[in-house]
Amino acid sequence: MDLFRRKSVQALQAEAASDHSLKRALGPYNLTALGIGAIIGTGIFVLTGTVAAQNAGPAVVLSFVLAGVASAFAALCYSEFASLVPMAGSAYTYSYATLGEFVAWIIGWDLVLEYALSATTVAIGWSGYIVSFLADIGIRVPPQWQAARGTVVALADGTTTTAIFNLPAVFIIAVVTTLLVVGIRESANVNNVIVVIKLAVVLLFIALAAPHVDPANWHPFIPPNTGEREHFGYSGVVAGAGIVFFAYIGFDAVSTAAQEAKNPQRDMPIGIIGSLIICTVLYIVVAAIATGVVPYGQLDVPDPIAKVADYAGLGIFASLIKLGAIAGLTSVILVQLLGQSRVFYSMSRDGLLPPFVQKIHPRFRTPYITSILTGLAVAIPAGLLPVRDAAKLVSIGTLLAFVIVSIGVLVLRVREPDLPRPFKTPFIWFVAPMGAISAAYLMFYLDGQTWIRLLVWLLIGFAIYFLYGRTHSKVA
Question: What CA–CA distance (Å, rounded) separates 367 from 438?
Answer without folding.
Answer: 35
